[in-house]
Amino acid sequence: MPKPEVQILVCVNQREPGARKACCAPRGGMEVYRRFKDRIKELGVRDTVIVTRTGCLKHCSRGVVVCLWPWNVWYGGVEVEDVDEILEVTALGGGEEVERLRMPPGGWE
Ligand code: FES
User: Fold this and answer.
1) Considering the domain boundaries, does residue 108 fall inside one?
2) Does residue 109 belong to any structural domain of this protein?
3) Which residue's CA lies nearest to atom 1 of ligand 1?
């Protein structure tokens, strides 16, 4: 496998029941991750784009949190229905941003 050009991080963190902070798993983190994985395969871009499920990306109240490198683009409130657009616009579009999903500045938790 060649070195990928784009890495997509998807938070799938699950906290204990009753935890003080929110988390991305109950908001569909794994479903978002799986959709990225399936679409990357279907689009035939597995040599250039990889998706990685992660622990907390420190924007817990804005989950599901997704980050794309090498552009350092951060999205919040991502749902399964947003995955195709993120792939088309950002991952395969040279880092262009999907404005409605852009993470507001600050808010590291
Ligand atoms: S639990 Fe997903 S960003 Fe913290």
Assistant:
1) no
2) no
3) 23
**Ligand 1 centroid, distance to 105 Cα (angstroms):** 16
Q: What is the pLDDT of residues 41-70, one digit of tens each?
A: 999 999 999 999 999 999 999 999 999 999
Q: How many domains does the chain have?
A: 1
pLDDT of residue 106: 83
In a domain, 27, yes or no: yes
- Answer whether residue 105 shows pLDDT above 90: no
The C-alpha torsion from 74 through 27 and 34 to 105, rounded to 10°, is 0
For residues 27-45, average pLDDT: 98
The binding-site residues of ligand 1, defined as CB within 6 angstroms of any ligand atom, are 11, 13, 23-24, 56-60, 63, 65
- Domain with 77, as residue range(s), is 6-101
Angle CA(91)–CA(49)–CA(42) in degrees, nearest 5? 95
Tell which atom from ligand 1 comes closest to the C-alpha of 62.
3
| CATH code for the domain of 56 | 3.40.30.10
